[in-house]
Amino acid sequence: MIEEVGIAKVATYGEDPQRLNGLRPINFLFGANGSGKTTISRVIADPASYPSCTIAWRNGRSLETLVYNRDFVAHNFSQPLRGIFTLGEVATDTLERIEEARGKVEEIEEQIGKLKATLGDHAGTTGKHAELRALRESFEAECWKIKSAHDAHFQGAFSGVRNSRARFCDKVLEEAAANQAALQSVDDLKVRARTVFAEGVARLPILQSINGADLLALEQRPVLSKKVVGKEDIDIAALIRRLGSSDWVREGLQYAAGAGAPCPFCQKALDAELLAKLNAFFDEAYVADVGEIARTEQAYDTFAGAILGVVDVALGSGATHIDIEALRPLRDRLQSLIALNKRHIERKRKEPSMPVTLEPLDEALGQIAALIESANNQTARHNALVDNLVAERKTLTSEIWKCLIEENRNIIGPYSSGKAGLDKAVAGLTAGIVSKTTDLNAARAVLAELEKGVTSVQPTVTAINNTLTSFGFTSFNLAATGDKGQFYRIVRGDGSEATETLSEGERSFITFLYFYHLIGGSTTASGVNVDRVVVFDDPVSSLDSDVLFIVSSLIKRILAEAAEGGGRVKQVFMLTHNIYFHKEVSFDPKRQGTRRAHETFWVARKANDATILSSHETNPIRTSYELLWSEVKNPNRSNLTIQNVLRRILEHYFTILGNMDKDAVAAKFEGRDQQVCASLFSWINDGSHNFTDDLYVTADDATVARYLAVFRQIFEVTNHGAHYAMMMGHEAPSPEPVPDEAPVAGTATILVEVVKPAALGEDVGG
């Protein structure tokens, strides 16, 4: 049985699917012409032709569908008609064998249905396929978290899968299964990725390294720690040493102009002998040492400036790998030490006899050299990557995926094991379905072989011709034709072809009879008694009232079979736009207001040129006469309109249908009740057919109660109480007795107003 029909993107149906759901054995659908009913019948007849629509079968077991619509008429009303095979009179044991074979077919079909239900649909909405889909969606969400966490650093490695959850998930699974790269730390991979995946990446220059050996060697010059003084064997040498004035004497000697000139120390005439002794004191050894001090000072200044220059170049290079924040304070410290040593050397130059010791630079130079060397090593690796960029990118990509896979084994492992289990279940169910399908084909072949020997097309010819004759269609009938009598043709009494000369009503009727008998048979010698879903789409077009009645009666037999559930018709869809026909086929005396357990009611309507399907708990199609009675039964009825409602019911039932004398009816009452009865029938005579089509009387609750009581009594005194009870329903309470003093129509307490038809519609009076 069909449980749900979903229709979208076809004919008058829009993008959002309209659904017939919660379907039952009998399903009534009413809709005006063009509202989308035939589309529903076509989808049920051939769902494969409508990929945007869906059919959901109970337990996944699909049944044969027989659809009567204009497509069926156009396809089958031709010469010759295919014969309808039905079971003939056969031995009981043969029928038992057929039923046993059919039972086997149904058993296997049920088993296949259960397997398919467990397996689910390939869209992943049910069964194991749904579990697989849910597992996959959950895993994709976890994988996407991995991507989001690392995308900023590893965009290059994620190239091609960054914009698709599904592709990224597939890549994770692919790498988890096959990646053999070496495992690297995430931090190292991020550093390498900045280079390898950078846009416009190029080689970087190597920084000049520091060589401080020459500068460090100057620190060890002996002249710096040596007391540089004059010649020791000069008689004034002892005096100069004792006074410690060697540097002062040497400095002043520069201002001596010669013998006899003023002495730079005492301003007396300089004695030639003293001048000679002073000059002899500062001999060649002294001069050499002083020169060595000067050269040391010059060399120190040159080497120190060169080293500082190298450091300054590194600081200003903007090199990617140099640690500027660490280098800058080291450079400042080195500069301070160099400046201090320069002052020491300068003092030595000015006072050669003063030993000096320079501040050691080896530690500061070593730290700076190490920073530059580290930067150069990283630059060298960068340049090596650039020189072999394609291979490096491939290697790095593999290492990145390897790292991410190992970090997330706790996610990948459960998914892989869960999927393996579900895949195994799906494979087992699929194999079971294939095996059962083979068994089903074999069982059907056995059933078909049994049915071939006991089916015939002739009983259908006889049944259809008898129906035609009983309803006065005597100018044509069906006759078997074909070499084996397996076809039908429509002929006149003289045997001539009648197809082209039939009226539209005759054509519709015989086509319906053909479909009706097809429901209980088959166009092949086998498959006569398979379970079926039957669809009637406006089967009474162009039929007169007499034929419409027999069509309704035949359809009600099919509906009864579906409702009971014991026959081969398991479900019926009744689609129509004819109100009378809908009321005829949907009438059920056992229905108490709401729909019964085996039926559904639907209405198809168009809103903004798109079909809307709506479900109803009660039969939504009611006659105007029923609507009037529903107003009477309504405890919240309007006092303003109820008198007019009662008048319309009496007019329809007693005057139009019953042709009863209103005076005779009124004579059956006495007193105030007779007044009320007469006033009701007076409205009928006076107001029914003039331009003031509706009379509304304002009255209080007591007045309304009086009219309701008299209304009921009118049916009872005319022996039509059963009709009143039927229309009011068994649960409807009888109107309460009304005191005699209640006012009636025609007294001074009633205000009569003439207004236009309102709440009950323009045509509710019959």
Key terms for this structure?
about 775 residues; alpha/beta; Rossmann fold; six-stranded mixed beta sheet; three-stranded antiparallel beta sheet; disordered C terminus
Question: Would you give an account of this structure?
Answer:
- By secondary structure, the chain is α/β, with parallel strands linked by helices.
- The strands form 5 sheets. The protein has a 6-stranded mixed β-sheet with strand order 5-11-12-3-13-14, sandwiched between helices.
- Helix content is 54%, strand content 11%.
- The protein is elongated and about 180 Å long.
- Among the domains are: 1-63 and 531-621, P-loop containing nucleotide triphosphate hydrolases (Rossmann fold); 89-178 and 408-453, no CATH class; 455-529, no CATH class; 624-755, no CATH class.
- Helix 4 (127-154) runs antiparallel to helix 16 (409-452) and helix 22 crosses helix 24 (671-687).
